[in-house]
Amino acid sequence: MEEVAHTTPELLDDLVTAEWGERYGRPVRLCSQPSHPVTRLTQAGVDARDLLTRAHQRQPGFSPGPRLEALRRIMAQQFLVDTRDRLRPRREKDGMPPVGKQIRSPYDLQARFALRGNTPLSVSFG
Fold first, then answer.
1. Cys bridge to 111: 28, 74, 98, 124, which one at CB 3.0-4.6 A?
2. Angle at alpha carbon of residue 53, lines to 91 and 2, rounded to 5°
3. 35-58 vs 66-78: helix axis angle to the nearest 10?
4. Model confidence at 117, in pLDDT bands (50, 70, 90)?
5. Does residue 8 register a pLDDT over 70?
6. Lowest model confidence (mean pLDDT) among 14-18, 24-28, 29-33
7. CA distance 114 to 120
8. Pairing, β 111-116 against β 119-124
9. pLDDT tens for residues 55-112?
10. Distance between CA 52 and CA 3 in Å, rounded?
11. Which residues share a beta bridge with 126?
């Protein structure tokens, strides 16, 4: 959102509501209820999809900046659209990208996890 706010703030006019402020204006705390994290993850995916859709619809020939491009790639990696056109988080059975290709940080798109013996390591290339 910061990238859009700097480059094309008008895209956020009707998108950022009081509910967005509630969801993203404070640190997120996951509840002990098992369904809540999935619900929050799904809502974050829907909000991200709305932001990306709005950016592409309002600007013909739109070329996303690096942050929006990262968001687009993360959305493709982490979410699917089901047969009813609803967005949902990917599960293992849906097929995930190989671990070596998964984006692990929106701040460093080249960062990857690696294994050394049985110990996971966070590795950054680039």
1. 124
2. 90
3. 130
4. low
5. yes
6. 29-33
7. 6
8. antiparallel
9. 777 666 667 778 888 888 888 888 998 889 889 888 888 888 777 777 877 777 787 7
10. 12
11. none
How many other C-beta atoms are found inside a 10 Å radius of the C-beta of residue 46? 14
Beta bridge partner(s), residue 112: 123
Nearest in space to 114 (alpha carbons), one of 126, 92, 95, 98? 98
Among residues 54, 57, 59, 104, which one has the least CA distance to residue 78? 104
Is the alpha carbon torsion for 106, 78, 110, 71 positive or negative?
negative
Which of 14-23, 82-91, 112-121 shows the highest mean pLDDT? 82-91
CA distance 120 to 69: 27
Cα torsion angle, 17, 22, 26, 28, sign: negative
